[in-house]
Amino acid sequence: MAEQSGPALALEADDIWAGYNGRTALEGVAFNIETGCLAGLVGPNGSGKSTLLRLILGLHKPWRGRIRIFGSGARPDRLRLGYTPQTEQVDWSFPVTVLDVVLMGRYGRLGPLRRPTATDRDIARQALESVRMADLADRRIGELSGGQQRRALVARALAQEADLLLLDEPLSGLDATAQHDLINLFEGLRHQGKTLLVATHDLSCVAADFDHAILLNRKVVAFGRPADVFTEELLNATFQRHLLLVRLEDRTYVGHD
Amino acid sequence: MTEVLDYVSDPWTLEFMRRGLIAAVMVSAVAAVIGCFVILKGMAFIGDALPHASFGGVAAAFVLGANLYLGGAIAAVLTALLIGFVSRRALLKYDTAIGILFVGAFAAGILIISRRTNYTPDLFSFVFGNVLGVSWSDVWTTAVVAAVILVLVVLFYKELLFVTYDPSMAAAAGLPVAAVQYGLLALIGVTTVIGLQTVGIVLVVALIVTPAATAQLLTRRLPAMMAAGAAVGVLSSLAGLYVAYYADVSASAAIVLTATAFFFLAFLFAPGRGLLWQRGFSPAGRV
Ligand SMILES: Nc1ncnc2c1ncn2[C@@H]1O[C@H](COP(=O)(O)OP(=O)(O)OP(=O)(O)O)[C@@H](O)[C@H]1O
Ligand SMILES: [Mg+2]
Predict the structure, then answer these.
(1) How much distance in Å is there from the Cα of A167 to the middle of ligand 2?
(2) Confidence class of residue B1 from pLDDT cuts 50, 70 and 90?
(3) What are φ and ψ of residue B45, in 5° steps?
(4) pTM assigned to the model
């Protein structure tokens, strides 16, 4: 079931215009992503990454343009879309445990009046296991470190068992091991046929491990394989400052001077 | 020994004390459960606003000769929904919307009343509460409304939790976020109205906020917080009525002050989170 023949598209965006209170945030954004790929969404602060993810989810309405998800222009089944917000948008003082939060990933499937079952709990615990957080299941969500909070949010999206995962900066603030673990997890999900669109500021990571990159700065500056789009010219156009590209053997490192 | 028992049981030989206790216990338990959502969303101000707004409805019903509680409930729920509407559209900040709407509705109440010269004690009991003056029919009305609120909270617990905790994720998961938010606001409105009888417009916010805030200091998960809040509310009602009976003071004030005392106890002594705990016992405090 994992291998699909032909370039079935998970996501097609066509001339998307959107913004807030009459101020534009996205200007004619267009790109597409194949099913089963791990795509990075990169761009400077305020470039519209979070806005784009929220548009795909249907949390924000575009002024113009169309987004097709799994080949359909109609809103897809919500259950096929998983999402982790940027941690800044989450209320960490709420009296819920890590497991409670991860279980919320199951709520969309349950429908009204139904409570999570033992199966839902198992799935939630497995999701925690896969981000190496099983031992923290009963912690209050506010009693986690920043990196642990991010992993808990990723676990919630995993518990949803969605086909298209939209992750807003899941890698920020993770230590090297946790980041490595998460990338491994992403690759595992991709092998199961899932599609991931990950907003991130870690360009080196996208260059090394992702198979697709979208360079965004209000417009799509470029999209394609990281090896093709991570050129100094395109990156400088995206970030509007000088970035340093270092290629060592087959790895690319991005820094600034 | 029997003397002590007499002290304990004496107040309850009076029927109006028994009625007052039943009403106060039900109201304070429900108010604490709803209050958990109120304080977690940082909406304590709404617990003050809705009772005031309901005064507009009470006054209108009074002039029209209609049921005062029904009038109050309609005004409170309408104000709650309007507050939700205004702030959902991000037209105004939440507390600004609340401030404008509740003072408006309260002023409308005063305006209506001012046309009539004969203020009756009836209306004053809405302002200051009259828990010892409730009738059996009041008690039954309160019981039915309280039961409906609690059943709704239990049935829709999952939705209420998800939507208050993380509305955008809840929307992304396909939950009817707007309906749940409006529903919660309506429940808060109805809760404040049944609280009017017990403690009155001015003090009802205390029943919503104080026991829930006390419970927040003592618990780690929302279900436990609701249960503990309800327990604090019930204990405050009981203790407050004893104080009112033996000290011959206002019952509503005594109930509210008892709840306040419980809050300060928790604030000082709550394991792990109390002030003294942090100062005296934690490793960080011993610097
Ligand atoms: N809720 C909002 N109301 C008004 N404007 C907003 C809102 N959210 C974002 N914006 C604006 O839209 C633009 C895009 O913001 P967005 O959050 O999508 O950027 P981003 O790429 O996710 O940035 P970051 O890297 O900082 O997360 C910015 O100019 C921002 O000021
Ligand atoms: Mg963002």
Answers:
(1) 10
(2) low
(3) -55, -35
(4) 0.86
For A113, the token pair is 């009046």
Predicted local distance difference test score (pLDDT) of residue A21:
87
Contacts of A150 (CB under 8 A, 6+ apart): A84, A87, A169, A170, A171, A172, A173, A174
Helix (H) or strand (E) holding A244, with range, is: strand A243-248
For residue A53, give the ligand 1 atom closest to its CA.
18
What number is the average pLDDT over the span A147-173? 89
Kindly indicate the confidence band of residue A208, based on its pLDDT and cuts at 50, 70 and 90: confident
- Percent of chain B exceeding pLDDT 90 equals 48
Residue-wise pLDDT for B177-217, tens only, equals 999 999 999 999 999 988 887 788 888 899 999 999 999 99
**Are A104 and B222 in contact (CB < 8 Å)?**
no
CATH number of B19-213: 1.10.3470.10
Q: Could you tell me which residue, A1 or B132, shows the higher pLDDT?
A: B132
Residue to mutate (ligand 1; options A17, A24, A45; most atoms within 8 A of CB): A45
In this complex, the residue of B165, B172, B222 whose CB is nearest that of residue A78 is: B172
Q: Where are the domains of chain B?
A: 19-213
Q: Rounded to an integer, what distance in angstroms lies between the CA atom of residue A134 and that of residue A116?
A: 18
**Is the CB of residue A85 below 6 angstroms from any atom belonging to ligand 1?**
no
Whether the Cβ atoms of residue A160 and residue A108 lie closer than 8 Å to each other:
yes
**Residue B169 above 80 pLDDT?**
yes
How far is the C-alpha of A143 from the C-alpha of B284, rounded, in Å?
A: 17
> Does A104 contact chain B (CB < 8 Å)?
yes
Which distant-in-sequence residues (6+ apart) come within 8 Å of B119 by Cβ?
B113
Higher-scoring residue by pLDDT: B258, B112: B258
CA dihedral B276, B279, B280, B283 (to 10 degrees): 130
Could you count the other beta carbons within 10 Å of the beta carbon of residue B46?
Answer: 28
Q: Do B20 and B131 form a contact (C-beta atoms < 8 A)? A: yes
State yes or no: pLDDT of A187 exceeds 60.
yes
Distance A49 CA to ligand 1 centre (A): 8
Residues in chain A: 257
Tallying the residues shown for chain B, one arrives at: 287
Q: At what angle do helices A176-191 and A146-159 cross, to 10 degrees?
A: 10
Chain A contacts of B165, Cβ < 8 Å? 91, 94, 96, 101, 104
Q: How far apart are the first and last CA of chain B?
A: 49
Per the CB < 8 A criterion, the answer to whether B12 and B18 are in contact is yes
Q: Any CB–CB contact under 8 A between A107 and chain B?
A: yes
